[in-house]
Amino acid sequence: MKKYKLIAPLALGAAAALAAGVAALLKKPAEAAESAAAPAPKTPAVPKHRCVGSYSFISGFQNAVTVEMEMDYDSEKYSFVVIEDEFPSYSGDSHVAVVYGEDFNMQLEYAAYYKGEDFAGHVKTLGEKYQGIAPVRFGGVEGIRFIDGDNVCLALPIPNDASSFLLVTLMKNPGYDEDVSTLPDHPDLRYMLGTLRFTLH
Question: Dihedral sign, CA of 183, 187, 188, 192?
């Protein structure tokens, strides 16, 4: 998918608040009421065999930093790999992290912000190009979700990183009977993304 480049230092809470405000403006009153009545997400599932997946990348050009992302997952149900080709979803990056599972596959990759654009501008651009834009929260991680073709994508700001955000693409597998739009509420997914942590070097 097309990448959006942005340079603007925003903490997760501020970014989420901004995103929620923009998303609220995009909703019609009836849609907002329907959203308020929606059931709460399912409780995240605690893994039986906890493993840690790691993905690192260079963020920025001037004053570039190395960002290391870590995420917990259940190795009995999922596999975590970092690959350099044959990506499940198109990417212009040199490498991406992929989680393979029975219900869904998940691709995680770094995406740079457009120069001079802040998170609010990024959310506005997404709202003009994609459907289903809405704020999301996984544990302490907050961001935006949107529909891109047959996939659900998540844009998640990286704390203290002014140059890049984490782009997550969710792809349902044939055995998953529910609509792809329900994947952000999948308990295993909520657990994994709720454990996301970033270290900048």
Answer: positive
Distance CA 137, CA 159 (A): 14
- CA-nearest of 127, 38, 56 to 95 is 56
Q: Which two tokens stand for residue 171?
A: 């792809």
Assess contact for 163 and 113: CB atoms under 8 A: yes
Residue entry with tokens 């992929």: 98
Give the orientation angle of helix 12-26 with respect to helix 119-129, to 10 degrees.
Answer: 40
Chain segment 141-169, per-residue pLDDT in tens = 999 999 999 999 999 999 998 888 999 99
DSSP 192: H
Distances (CA, A) of 89 to 39, 86, 153: 30, 8, 11
pLDDT single digits (tens) 103-143: 999 999 999 888 777 677 777 788 888 877 999 999 999 99
For residues 166, 44, 34, 119, the Cα torsion angle rounded to the nearest 10 degrees is -20
Strands (E) located in 75-140: 79-83, 96-100, 104-112, 131-138
CB contact at 8 A, 196 and 37:
no
Strands ordered across the beta sheet of 164-172: 79-83, 96-100, 104-112, 164-172, 151-157, 141-148, 131-138
Per-residue burial over 168-191, b if 16 or more Cβ lie within 10 Å, else e, is bbbbbeeebeeebeebbebebbbb
